[in-house]
Amino acid sequence: MSHIINRSVMESVCIVCCSNNEQIKNEMLLKSLQGQYLQITNEEAKEMQLDICELSLELEIYEKGFSSAAAAYNYAIEHSSSDYFFFVHQDVAFLDSLFLLKAVNTINKHKNALFGLCGSKINGNLYTYSNIWHGLWNNNIGTPIDDIVEVQGLDEVMVAFHKDVTKKIRFDEKTFDGWHLYVEDICLQAELLSIKVYVLPYKSQHKSFLEMPGYMKKYGILPKEYFTYLVRIRNKYKGKVDSIVCPCCCIRTDFIHFWRQIFFMYKYHRTKEKWRIRSL
Fold first, then answer.
1. How many other C-beta atoms are found inside a 10 Å radius of the C-beta of residue 189?
2. Most CB contacts within 10 A, which of 6, 84, 146, 174?
């Protein structure tokens, strides 16, 4: 594919990642970014129906200095002048070499929206959508999609949006002062402001944290901290929304249903944890 372009206007993209494992970061996210085409010709863009055919890339990798993802992400927003923000986990790889160009073109058409790689919505039951090939099982998570799909909640592996969104919402680093449910929170912020939430249809790979040596024995499938933040997000939105939609669950916010679900979720994941540890 040619790298010669005729377009003079360049759109800027900021990739933000909090990393605690250099090997995984290099093998997954950084390697896939090196394979991205950031420039195509006007003719190629026209053929693929892309309005934007050139990107400049700013890469922000935070390895120290932040106690939460929300704090790091807000810092990036405040200190970057980029047009588009992609907040990505270190264990994600973009399998499409035109992922960023396609994603930016899609976001450009929906500047007042959030986008992710995996998301869920309630339509009688909980439905999850993604084109992610996932970890230990190397299978697709949820229902594969050919176009963007509107959802209620996104998985934290990635969230992306245009800079215009930052004028309305930010990551809540006070309530979510750790590493869980900060993306689910901004999805709920978006819902209350009538901002749409979508899943992108472009292929990606997720190297699950469950594959990290010793992780299962130390933390389990869902760490105990996850349940702490479930309580916090419920307390923040009770009376405002009926349900909190995550890719792995849908939590009711009324008192009785919430605590009943928490009890059975905790019991289930602790049981699954013991079973998986025995199988390792």
1. 19
2. 84
- The answer on pLDDT for 243 being more than 70 is yes
**Residues present in the chain in total:** 280
Residue 3: inside a domain: no
Give the CATH number for residue 150: 3.90.550.10
Q: Is the pLDDT of residue 278 over 90?
A: no
Percent of the chain with pLDDT over 90: 71
Q: What is the pLDDT of residue 270?
A: 59
Structure tokens, 24: 């995984």
> For the residues 124-139, what does the mean pLDDT come to?
81
Q: What pLDDT was estimated at residue 136?
A: 57
Burial class from Cβ neighbours inside 10 Å (0-12, 13-18, 19+) for residue 62 reads middle
Q: In the predicted model, what is the mean pLDDT of residues 60-83?
A: 96
Across the strands, what pairs with 15? 59, 86
Domain that holds residue 229: 11-279
- Longest Cα pair distance anywhere in the chain, in angstroms? 61
Q: Is residue 4 part of a domain?
A: no
- Shortest CA distance to 230 belongs to which of 178, 181, 172, 175? 181
- Our count of domains for the chain comes to 1
